[in-house]
Amino acid sequence: MKNAVSGIGLAPDAAMVTFPIDMFLPGSDLASLKERRREFYDGLTRWKSQLAQAAGSAKMLAVEGATYEDALVKANNLLLANLWGDGLPLWPATKERVDWILRGSALPRTHVLGKFPPRGGVTTIETCAIALAMAGGRPEYLPVLVAAVDACLESEGFDQLQATSGGPFPAVIVNGPIAKQIRLNSGFGLLGPDPQRPAGASIGRALRLLQQNVGGALPGVGTMAIFGGMRYTNAVFAEDEEGLPPGWQPHAAERHGYPPGTNSVSVVFASGVANVRRRGAKKETPEEDALNGMWRMADFMRTPNLAALAGWEKGTPGIMMLAPVVARRMAELGWTQRSIREFLWEHSKIPMAQMRRAGAPAWIEIDANPVTRSSIKLDPWPICSKPDNIVLIVAGGSHPTHSYWLQAHSPSVTGRVIRVPESFERLLADADRDLGCGEDVCRI
Amino acid sequence: MIKLEFHDPSGALEVTQPHAPRLASLEGRRIGFVSNEQWQAYRMLPMLKEMLEQDFPGVAVLPVDAFPQGNALIGTEETAALVKKSGVDAVIVGNAA
User: Fold this and answer.
1) Are A320 and A403 in contact (CB under 8 A)?
2) Cβ–Cβ under 8 Å, residues A215 and A162
């Protein structure tokens, strides 16, 4: 709550009376409300903020150690003690390291991107560079991080997404040549660690550190994410644009209208992932294999994911990832991006009887969006207002067996063009020197 | 000794507006509720109304439904204008989670 208070510009030390969650559940015992009523009354009358003005400002910290390793351990301990870590080793954001990261910015270090909710920490280019330095990042990653942060801050309902119990996490889809240039994975294992394409881990971890340290999304305090999946690195990956079948458009062109070849990010808030075994097991014809796989994908989507109501009209119910080899085979059979979306939309509709059985209509009835509320008349009920809301991405290893469904809690899908500094080519050359191989990464 | 200096990663906070002034006492005051209808508000807020009325002579607590209710409505400018127009001395907003 302190975060929410400071996030709207008030001093964070507001009067509070807090209770265990049990009191807020159906049928609860409300006796403690009566017992502690004087605390409410004091908050309404006697309480006074002790923080009339600046509640905090960025500053330098210092530790001393007998050796560099000793100092590094102490720095990590200090970061954890201040609740600024994620449990994995961090690079302390020294002036030297932050200045190095800032070589990747096209904007001045003091440029303000906004206030990171719910806490409302002022987020500058330097703030991003500090997080990226801590996350083990490099200068050439900074343009992607800055665009992702900008997109997050502009995303509809971002304050609620940061704090909600559902625990949505940013999935940052990168389009354009920058993905390969900075070694961002679009192929095998793109959502996991990859020593040959390490950019996504650092960028996503830096974004997560910003969410926690600047935005105040601390587990159980600033974010009520019950399970908190993907909280170390979020999901930062590239679409495999070279794997797009002829005539298919990159995601950023389809969703945001950016010309193909534009460096951009597109931020979706995902709330889970499901693997769909798409490929047939016996003697299916190519047509049967494609159609069976489409049905299996639709079957996974046909669930009352009530968190997705927030994006029913304009956001997305999720990201369906097709491996490039699957996209190519389907295109050869006549499937298009449009026809795939239309099939998935049509066949993921949920019979209203099933919705009623799950108590889902009550959530539709109280939704803030009148368009969403009006959808209660539809039977079967579509999981989003139109097929175009479904995000379809061609990415992953070139292997036909699985698709991947990232269900969403995403009121919007926000795009941003990535701005790189004039010296970007130099940064890429430095990366080639430091990491030992070029953008067409190489060892396997 | 090796000294390691590094940035505080938490970013600056700006206080841009004061909290509402507190009332000297709740006695004789007019209090309203703005409810999002969540988290047992339908039980707790009437209980709070009853307690305020018991504990403070002359207090007037408006009914829970005196203003628009629900997450979709309580944050709107229209609701804020209705609250102001009502002339209440204070409002209690609930229930967050």
Assistant:
1) yes
2) yes
Q: What is the ipTM of this complex?
A: 0.88
Interior CA angle at B20 toward B14 and B23, to 5°?
150
**Position A232, amino acid:** Y
Query: Mean pLDDT of residues grouped by 10 in chain A (444 residues)?
Result: 75 80 86 87 84 60 97 98 96 97 97 95 96 98 98 95 93 98 96 94 98 94 87 96 97 98 98 94 93 97 94 98 97 98 98 95 92 97 98 96 97 98 97 79 52
DSSP letter, residue A437:
S
- Residue A350's beta-bridge partner residues? A381
Residue B35 CA to residue B53 CA, distance in Å, equals 18
Interface contact B5-A60, CB threshold 8 A: yes
CB A29 within 8 A of CB A23: yes
Interface contacts A/B by beta carbons within 8 Å: 170
Name which of B2, B3, B8, B10 to mutate to probe chain A: the one with the most chain A Cβ atoms within 10 A of its Cβ: B10
Three-state secondary structure call for residue A93: coil
- Rounded to whole angstroms, the maximal C-alpha distance in chain B is 68
In A, which residues are within 8 Å of B19 by CB distance? 10-11, 14, 49
Tokens standing for residue A411: 């009121």
CA atoms of A189 and B2, how far apart (whole Å): 40
Measured distance CA(A192)–CA(A198) in Å, rounded:
9
Instruction: Report B:17-36 residues touching A (Cβ under 8 A).
Output: 17-19, 22-26
Residue A111: is it exposed, middle or buried by C-beta count within 10 angstroms (0-12/13-18/19+)? middle
Q: What is the helix (H) or strand (E) element at residue A235, kind and residue range?
A: strand A235-238
Q: Up-side HSE of residue B29: CA atoms within 13 Å toward CB?
A: 20
pLDDT in tens, chain B (97 residues): 999 999 999 998 888 888 888 889 999 999 999 998 888 888 889 999 999 999 998 999 999 999 988 877 888 899 999 999 999 998 888 876 5
Q: What is the DSSP string of A116-138?
A: ETTTTEEEEHHHHHHHHHHTT--
Q: Report pLDDT for A364.
A: 95
Q: Which two tokens stand for residue A144?
A: 């992607």
